[in-house]
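Two records follow; treat each independently.
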Amino acid sequence: MAQNGTVTDDRRRQVDLGFLDSLRLSLEIGYCGVLRNEIARFGDRLAMSPDEDIRDEYAKITRRAQEAFQIEAVHGRGSLLQLRHPVVKDLIGIKVPRRPPIIEPEEIEAARRYGSIKRRVRG
């Protein structure tokens, strides 16, 4: 196996795929705050990956992320949170209360407002 610094190419690919999975989950649940942090932490690594498939997938994710960030800029922090998603329910603390809360009440309210807007637009 070829060495890439102290990490093999195969190992790097596995780690990068894990980072992409984490970014996808943040998009899926609408957690833009975490998504921003993940892009800041892993973005350069993924954008410069020796693996073209990783770079292409990261580019797709960042395009979707930019759209999400624009929506949040208009509708408020947390507006894209998927409140029915099990991960979000856990972060809100529905089953086990969290102190301090991971997702703030203002974010939950923004998600409810934006969800209401989307339902009205769909008719």
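The next record belongs to a different protein.
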Amino acid sequence: MTEPLGLTAATDFYNDAVRRAVSRQLPVVDLFGAASTLSDAGQAQATVDLYRTWVAYNGEDPLLYAVYFNYGAALMAIRDNVGAINALRECLRIKPDFGPAHINLGRALEDSGQAGSAVAQWLTLVNNLGVINGESVSHKMTALQQIGRVLEGANNDASAEDALKQSLDINVSQTEVMQHWISLRQRQCKWPALEPWERATRKDMQNGISSLSLACLADEPVFQLAKAYAYARKAIGMPKVVARPAQGARHDKLRIGYISSDLREHAVGFAMTDVMELHDKDKFEIYAYYCGISRTDATQQRIKNAVTQWTDINGMTDDQAAEKIAADGVDIIIDLNGYTKDARTKVFARRPAPIAVNWFGFPGTMATPYHHYIIADETIIPESHELYYSEKVLRLPCYQPNDRKRTVSPNRPTRMQVGLPENAFVFCSFNGTQKTTPRVFERWMNVLRQVPDSVLWLLTGTADANERLRHKAAQLGVAPDRIIFADKMANPDHLARYPLADLFLDSMPYGAHTTAADSLWMNVPIVTWPGRSFAARVCASLVRAAGVPELACESADAYVALAVDLARNPERLAAIKAKLAAGRDTCTLFDTPALVRGLEDLYRQMWNDYKSGNLPVPDLRNLDVYHDIGVDLDLEGAELLSDEAFLALYHEKLAEWHSAYPIPFDDRLWRKPQQENAQRTGQRAVA
């Protein structure tokens, strides 16, 4: 592999290439080679200038369309979208059926703010393909993916879903496309979310579903563990580990690094501001690495002011970001994204710090070899549930941070102003529509039927999704006008309207997290029912930490019964609200100083583990087998199984697998017989 040219050599190389272009002595193949050399040397503008010069002097070349295409790509690289649009249009004028130019032109139009024109450009390609071969089909799939992505970003969910389905019709094994297709159906409340058709089976969908969509779909922590593992192996891979400073050359203070795309006006950013401000700067240095949208707001500014160092890693490659973290000498790196939008998991895969921690940003296990710890609490991950996680579980009294300085608008609306009836009992659920499942909606309608003078106040989805829910309510015997939708608004205004509701109804299996904390902060009780998975247990943790554990029910039937009882017994509901109000400033949930002290104690414990050679090794054995088993199961049905029946199902499937393809024992569900007996009797197994 040749080394990139230095500046002087690159200048000489460029001048020689230009001379040859002007004298028409630079064939297209040599032009592309010269442009690649300049690009590798970091000479992006020189690359553009070489293409422009060549076009001016070689306009009759039969491969001119290809040169215009590469010229457009070079212009996009320097963010000259106007120039790129012109170059790519010229490419298509010469060769209208050149698929890659349609794709890039659409992207240039999108980047210049012309999303509608971008979609139209991709549709031109999709609708006018001539010869059917591997290349043209690939171009069609790419165009459909781009259309789906842009329409999804514009909240045109139905059209985006249709475009992605067309792409899956061509190749159902496109994991990212399947992930977005399922997510779109969940967001639109199209049930069942996993609806097979002639080109896609349910197994295809369960094989392709994302970890977040799976958490919304099913209370199935074994498959969630296996899914995270499968995704990490396929999408993250095995990048080269970055060089780190030697262990002996450490610093006096522990250096803690937080990586997140959400250190801004976002649920994670709101919650983390107090944490950043309360860290003991005499004992810890705090580094923030931001990978989110390019926009500064008051929340982000608070975080910037609180940390030792703020670094925007958006413009860095994964290698560069990892090298920066390693050069900063970070001891413990905290993943505040997990498998969520704009995450930089590949940076963690390069192991830029000795210790990596999964906390708060993602409700589940990462199932990688490089996430050593997960921070939770006794409610979210009781000891009996540790088998569902690859990381070592460490616990706080309550795992979720909260900002005690959150801004609440002084403008408190009336019920009339937000479209609520004055004298009705108002149930609310302000989770995103993707968390609304058929079963949870049926439970809500059961509650409404038993409380006639009540309404359900939901956070709005798309117009189609809202109408779909109202239609479903009518099918379940509830008047559609009893479903009322709240417009999305800035967080201070959203918080200010909470007290208009009487009682929050949690969703299942992905419950309210920061939304639940907002509700409790504003003195609106929330009824919940904890399941098995992380996402299904957070709300139970929060109500217990808020001092109202009676709001966490033992079953779905108990959840419905409690909601109905509180609506019918205003004195009981008032007593719970009084308890919330009295304990708000002293309860565990909002005691952020205590959380930070506990967090820092955990960081010290992790560092001591590392120094003593006891850093935990994630247990990833047999997770490929667990995944293969899970893709064939009724995932949603797991919610109806007892814990014993749920685990017995996997024992049965593992035994079936072992009878055909023997698998080694692990420490999870496929244990040696003596381990299994010891677990049942509480004795230590003999090695």
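Discussion point: The chain has 28 helices and twelve strands. How would you locate this feature using only the token line?
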